[in-house]
Amino acid sequence: MSLHWALICHGLITLTIVVSFLCGQWRIFQGTPISSIHRFLSFGAYQYFLRFIGAVFGDRGTNLILSVEYYCCDRPNPILQLIYLAIIGTTYYIIVKTSFSYIPGYYLSEAHRYASFLAIAVGILLFLVTSFSDPGTVKADNVSRYLSAYPYDNIIYTEKECPTCKIPKPARSKHCSLCNRCVARFDHHCGWMNNCIGERNTRYFLAFLLWHFLLCIYGTIAIGLVLAGRLKELQIVHVLTVYYGVDNSLRSLAPYVVQWLLDAHNTQILLMVFMGVVSLLLAGFFAYHANLCLTNTTTNETFKWQDYISWQKNLIEARASTAALKANIAGMTTEGKPQESKCKSFFRRSLLQDTEAIVKKNVYDKGFFHNLYEVVFPVSTRASFLHTKSKSG
């Protein structure tokens, strides 16, 4: 059973590290070990590593590491694309080598040999389409159409010019410093795709996330059915109950069945754990981006709204402090007058806070179906957008 507990500990440690790295900055984890691990993985470990390199190799070693960092993080590169292809290719190869010999089996037909290959091919196709599709590049010859398609809300988007491209910036666009271009309805730059996610390829990105989530679920269930088929074909439960005298109950049989699976099929168990963890991460990413699309918001706009709300809160707090200071001064000059009751003061302050409540007004959110339609059929792909081009020309 030592291998069993070792695998459980390995899975828990891996899950903790992955969740800490990806989600440690969330408010729910503030003040917890998850947040501390996130800070260490994101900043602390790298800083300690740079200090170590500097102490051992001097400035030349540090400069080499910084140049590698610049290539990997500050300019387009195919590193994460190659890692994705390596992960999906290696995983599928291991599945073929360890599990295809049991297909067809007790629960799976031979069709799953071909279905799995087709599923992998579709996943890679979506990856390639998302990676090499135009995210919606804003240029001098189409900027007027994007300006009419995405009006300014005068809250988080106001009329301005891109200092790099020297063209007007349509609302919801952003200049990507990595790709060196302005992108319409900019969401984020995805390192895995080596491409921006914008107006024209958000639909492909969502399809990629959803398909790979389903792919991991399919792989986990298929391997589980392979192992269940092996238990049935080899009559493991019958052997344990008849020849070893184990009680025929789930509680009694489970430890022995798990031990047999870990001894005979530990690779398949590790694959199931790996795909199960990845499916949870993909489900979280897909749910986050799907919610953004259904509310007609982007990741970039989420940060803009956070900055705007924070600025508004600071402004209200400054006004409240000024009002309190004036009230104190007034109280000092009118010591002879009767003081206002605490109850009356409380209700007057509450009403003031209600009138100064911060409201997020997203003018681009036009309802569930319209928002979904805008993602599936981007504005720049419609006939009306092309008609605007002929009129302006």
UniProtKB/TrEMBL annotation:
Biological process (GO), any one? protein targeting to membrane
Using the record's annotation, list all stretches that form the Palmitoyltransferase DHHC domain.
158-306
What Enzyme Commission number(s) does the record list for this chain?
2.3.1.225
- Tell me a Gene Ontology molecular-function term this record carries: protein-cysteine S-palmitoyltransferase activity
Q: Where in the cell is it found?
A: Endomembrane system
A cellular-component GO term for this protein: endoplasmic reticulum
Q: How does it sit in the membrane?
A: Multi-pass membrane protein
**What is the top-level taxon of the source organism?**
Eukaryota
Catalytically driven reaction(s): L-cysteinyl-[protein] + hexadecanoyl-CoA = S-hexadecanoyl-L-cysteinyl-[protein] + CoA
State the InterPro entries in the record.
Palmitoyltrfase_DHHC, PFA4/ZDH16/20/ERF2-like
The record's annotation in PROSITE patterns points to:
DHHC
Keywords for this protein: Acyltransferase, Membrane, Transferase, Transmembrane, Transmembrane helix
Name the residues that span the membrane.
Answer: 6-28, 40-58, 78-95, 115-133, 204-228, 269-288
Q: State the family it belongs to.
A: Belongs to the DHHC palmitoyltransferase family.
Q: Give the domain section of the comments.
A: The DHHC domain is required for palmitoyltransferase activity.
Specify the protein name.
S-acyltransferase
Species: Gossypium barbadense
